[in-house]
């Protein structure tokens, strides 16, 4: 396909090198649970016996840790979602083809121009006219309308004024 666009930007590459690099980066960027608990145990061991850590303070610290952990998880998820939507937005304005099952159990190939990208329950969809098609179902992406590239079919005007299409 001459006007085709690679889907490499839409679907990430999960080769061994990328996964190892992501895992290495993840381990060095944040204070983990084990490190926090180690610090907490050290604090408990070295506290003044005359002024032990109050239950309220301990509970408050645990609640703060839980809140920070949840915020970090949300931040990671939002970053991932932003990255995926950003990559998927590169197909807005392009023509795509996808397969759908018709009422008789056969498969029909449809095409159209992507109007927008949306996310529902963590799944990205391309809005094409009134349809919403999951990006996983796209079979091709191109700059040009594939329907315009097809040769025009000869038509005959029927007696009732409608056009009949002759198929070769």
From TrEMBL:
Transmembrane segments: none annotated. Residues 143-168 are annotated as: Disordered. Keywords: Bacterial flagellum biogenesis, Cell projection, Cilium, Flagellum. GO terms for biological process: bacterial-type flagellum organization. Pfam families: FlgD. InterPro entries: FlgD. Residues 150-168 have a biased composition (Acidic residues). It comes from the Bacteria. The keyword Electron transport does not apply. Belongs to the FlgD family. This is Flagellar hook capping protein.
């Amino acid at each position: 396909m001459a006007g085709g666009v690679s889907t490499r930007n839409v679907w990430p590459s999960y080769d061994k090198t990328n996964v190892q690099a992501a895992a290495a980066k993840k381990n060095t960027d944040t204070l983990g649970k084990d490190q926090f608990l180690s610090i907490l145990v050290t604090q408990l061991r070295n506290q003044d016996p005359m002024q032990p850590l109050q239950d309220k303070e301990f509970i408050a610290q645990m609640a703060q840790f839980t809140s920070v952990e949840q915020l970090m998880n949300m931040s990671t998820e939002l970053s991932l979602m932003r990255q995926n939507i950003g990559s998927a937005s590169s197909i807005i304005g392009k023509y795509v083809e996808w397969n759908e099952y018709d009422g008789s159990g056969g498969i029909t190939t449809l095409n159209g121009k992507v109007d927008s990208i949306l996310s529902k329950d963590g799944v990205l969809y391309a809005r094409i006219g009134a349809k919403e098609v999951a990006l996983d179902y796209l079979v091709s992406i191109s700059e040009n309308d594939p329907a315009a590239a097809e040769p025009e079919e000869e038509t005959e005007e029927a007696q009732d004024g409608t056009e009949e299409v002759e198929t070769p």
